[in-house]
Amino acid sequence: MWGAAQVGGRWIVAETELTLNGTVLSGHVHRVVLLLRMLKLPYRFVDAPRSARQTPEFGALNPLRQVPVLQDGNLVLADSGAILVYLARHYDTAGIWLPRDPVGEARVQRFLSLAAGELAFGPAAARAVTLWGLPGDADAARGVAARLLTFLEQHLAERPFLAAATPTIADLACYAYVARAPEGRISLAPYPAVGAWLARVEALEGFVPMPLSDVPAA
């Protein structure tokens, strides 16, 4: 299946329908969904709950049995950060979502590292422990989250987006777990600049929210 869209005055073309394996309540998956939609790339979503990830078929896609996994023709990619970089490099030739200059790219990479570090061990971990009782120290995760949100509040008080004057994959990588921090009993009320940034991301063309969990927060 071919799909094409004009981004930044240039045409991007997908020669095959992309397949995204994931779950709708995963922030790691949601960040990839956002970029696919904002690049207007056709894709098929395959639900991959924990039980499905134990099958030999999924193990062949990702031996670590984690989501997301992207299939683009014969290419199979795991890890949300790697997938974001691939999609931005391969399909966004204008360099809108991942700047091509060294400084711009480095600024984006900084927030991809935060997404894999403090964001994962802070808001995301607190949410996982609170909603689903996964192993972990929720109070320690909330401490990490407080430090991260304080940093983001100061950072975003002076700029509209995380890494550039326009949105990049840095914003998509960080959005979901910040937006759903209250599901981990982390209030966003003390962080108005963060709240304003969330609203700017939500106003982007193609945006869809990550669904709220139907599990009551503890």
Helices and strands, in N-to-C order?
EEEHEHEEHHHHHH
Strand content: 5-15%
If you consult CATH, what is the topology of the largest domain? Glutathione S-transferase Yfyf (Class Pi), Chain A, domain 2
Report the biggest beta sheet as strand number plus sense, adding barrel if it closes. 4 strands, mixed
Q: Assign an overall shape.
A: globular
Radius of gyration of CA atoms, rounded to a whole number: 17 Å
Query: Can you name the CATH architecture of the largest domain?
Result: Up-down Bundle
Can you put this structure into words, describing what you see?
46% of the residues lie in helices and 13% in strands. It has 218 residues and is α+β, with helices and mostly antiparallel strands. It has 2 domains: 89 residues, Glutaredoxin (3-Layer(aba) Sandwich), CATH 3.40.30; 101 residues, Glutathione S-transferase Yfyf (Class Pi), Chain A, domain 2 (Up-down Bundle), CATH 1.20.1050.10. The strands form 2 sheets. A 4-stranded mixed beta sheet has the order 4-3-5-6, with helices on one face. The chain has a two-stranded antiparallel sheet with strand order 1-2. The relative contact order is 0.14. The N terminus is likely disordered.
